Amino acid sequence: MAASDLPAPPIEPMLAKIADALPDEPGFQFEPKWDGFRALAFRQSDSLLLQSRDLKPLNRYFPELEQALIAQLPPRCILDGEIVIATPRGLDFDALQQRLHPAATRVQRLARETPASFVAFDVLAADGRSALALSQAERRVLLEALLVDAAPPLHLTPVTHDRAQAARWLAQFEGAGLDGVVAKLESAVYEPGKRAMLKIKHARSADCVVAGFRWYKDRTDAVGSLLLGLYDDTDTLRHVGVTSSFTLARRHDLLQELAPLRAGAATAHPWQAALETAGQGPGAQSRWSRGKDLSWVPLRPERVCEVRYDHLQGLRFRHATTFMRWRPDKPPAACRYDQLAVTTPYELARVFGA
């Protein structure tokens, strides 16, 4: 490893682009895709900086991780990884979101009640020397040496070179709250900010009721996103997420196409009462919305569309969905949770020990 100065923060983490399937070509290593907050851990001479994907410090939100990583990591190294919250039910992203709270007393309480873990999957520097120019295979060897004695809450992510094993991980690990597999070329160097890896996620489709929309940016002549709903066992229509994968021309067309459904929609809309009482629904603010305008236009819940989604978290789609097509043959009442794939539970401890 050629000597060089320790890279200074902030550093953009290397990113991944979406792939439809695991690559067949030789020369890849595969790792689980963790569902948490991406973070770089800069272990300096006598301190530690946790840096988010958007280059902001995370230390104040995870004081228990700061102390644990200082105790376990050697000075002058930089790790790339994921901050997660592990529970008996698997990873809990909702609990992780709760940690981004401005009140110090709340942070301290949650650090005790829902302590976080750091899963390391790459190394950018060790012993004060940059590892950015090393190959992925060399960096993995270096990372394993650094974490040979790692103990919770610090973990080393599993790795395999066997595509069949990666396919099993893709099928099994979702039950522990993970959301896919990452493929990395063993010969690749670390490229900050570049989409130099592949992420393979679960792709499923669902028929959803369209019960409202949001405007496109600050315009009132185009649809930004469609608000999706599914009926639960009590025949209550619940807001489950959005779909927004449209061209600008299609956004204009959608506004005209949906115009008839706006008439009388506000009267007895299934989401109106929830918004007025508990503040839950498509217009409710959260820490994650960061003050964005989440106002919406109600539609009579009479149209159905099919969307592609990758992961269900609780009663909501974890990420924005992809619009596939309208389903005029499908009655809204048939759009229910029971159509969604049920994930078989999987012990998180078995993922760490893979």
Topology:
Blueprint lengths: L14 E5 L8 E5 L4 E7 L4 E5 L10 H10 L4 E8 L1 E2 L2 E2 L1 H6 L5 H10 L3 E10 L2 E2 L5 H11 L7 E3 L6 H10 L8 E5 L9 E6 L3 E12 L7 E9 L5 E7 L4 H11 L13 H6 L19 E13 L2 E2 L2 E2 L4 E5 L21 H5 L2
Description of the molecule:
The protein has helices at 63-72, 93-98, 104-113, 136-146, 163-172, 248-258, 272-277, 348-352, and strands at residues 15-19, 28-32, 37-43, 48-52, 77-84, 86-87, 90-91, 117-126, 129-130, 154-156, 181-185, 195-200, 204-215, 223-231, 237-243, 297-309, 312-313, 316-317, 322-326. The chain has 354 residues and is an alpha+beta fold. It folds into two domains: 15-202, D-amino Acid Aminotransferase, Chain A, domain 1 (2-Layer Sandwich), CATH 3.30.470.30; 204-339, OB fold (Dihydrolipoamide Acetyltransferase, E2P), CATH 2.40.50.140. The strands form five sheets. Strands 3, 4, 5, 8, 9 and 10 form a six-stranded mixed β-sheet that branches. The protein has a five-stranded antiparallel β-sheet with strand order 15-14-13-16-19. A hairpin with a 2-residue loop joins strand 6 (86-87) and strand 7 (90-91). It is elongated, with a radius of gyration of 22 Å.
